[in-house]
Amino acid sequence: MNFVKDIIGEELDTFEKKFADAVRSQTPMLDRIMKYIIKRKGKQMRPMFVFLSAKLNGEINESTYRAAALVELLHTATLVHDDVVDESFERRGFFSINAVWKNKIAVLVGDYLLSKGLLLSTSNEDFKHLHILTEAVKQMSEGELLQMEKSRKLNLNEDIYFEIIKSKTASLLSSACAVGAYSTSKDENATNKMKLFGEKVGIAFQIKDDLFDYGVEDVGKPTGNDIKEKKLTLPLIYTLNKVDKSIKKRIIYILKNENKNKESVRFVIDSVIQQGGIKYAQDKMNNYRDEALKILYEFDKTPVRDALEELVRFTTDRKY
Questions:
Q1: Gap between the Cα atoms of 193 and 233, Å rounded
Q2: What Cα–Cα distance (Å) separates residue 57 from each residue in 89, 105, 114, 225, 302?
Q3: What pTM did the predictor assign?
Q4: Would you say 50 and 67 are in contact if contact means Cβ atoms under 8 Å apart?
Q5: Does 2-317 carry CATH code 2.40.50.100?
Q6: Between vectors from CA 170 to CA 164 and to CA 172, what angle results, nearest 5°?
């Protein structure tokens, strides 16, 4: 993604400083935790989408930086809370907040990050930013709960799958693109167009994550983590709808009762590969990527548009 950083590298550097200021606290323990969070931040894809979407529609300004900070604050808060819900003790190769400081503190840290995001927007009267992003948080919560409900019943349906990932994963990326566009254009049409663009990218992004569970495309050995957690993934849904009744019955039994058994998980992975579940998911992913690019191509060809295209292609071509 070198080209992307050539286009918005200066903005990303400035953003890092502004974000560190935004989360600073006068409470010593909380400030230590904020520094820990900043140290272990990820690829910053969502701020990249904010800045590129903003630059595609106008000149980056202070409102854009606040929009990017709001996205990152809300995203980080949901990750901290997710780790508590999932009882996960690792995030991006580091110990999670709940692993180091326990659940009670992690929940409060998530609340703090949410409150900082709300204050950042209301203090600067960025009410449109807040409306766009709070809608995304609502959808993320709904998507997570729907996934829990369907995973418990193993009611695997492709329409439900797309409803889940549209809410749980794509909504935040969609909002990042929308809020970026609005920060520089104040144009509802441009904002809605970028929102739809981001939704398509977000869905493609999640399908790519699904594929990683099966160890395809030279990304190493399959992890089977989604199977162990009974998560609905597109390759698995496709396979269950295609195999004969006896295989389907065995796969469902494994998901319910043997999802921690390595040999049983291997059977599920092999079944998905043999039935063409991987190719089906790849084709769906590429279709969503191409739909996103079709929206992007409605804008004039510029270095910014090229950088956004590179970022979109990274979401589906990435090896991690």
A1: 28
A2: 40, 40, 28, 40, 11
A3: 0.90
A4: yes
A5: no
A6: 120
Domain boundaries, the chain: 2-317
pLDDT in single tens digits along all 320 residues of the chain: 778 888 999 999 999 999 888 888 888 888 888 888 887 776 788 999 999 999 999 999 999 999 999 999 998 888 888 888 777 777 666 778 888 788 898 899 889 899 999 999 999 999 999 999 999 999 999 998 888 888 777 767 899 999 999 998 899 999 999 999 999 999 999 999 999 999 999 999 999 988 987 765 544 445 667 777 777 789 999 999 899 999 999 998 898 888 888 888 889 889 999 999 999 999 999 999 999 999 999 999 999 999 999 999 999 988 76
> According to DSSP H, which parts of the chain are helical?
2-23, 28-39, 45-57, 62-85, 97-123, 127-153, 158-165, 171-185, 188-212, 225-228, 234-242, 245-257, 262-274, 277-296, 303-317
Which residue type, as a one-letter code, is found at position 57? N
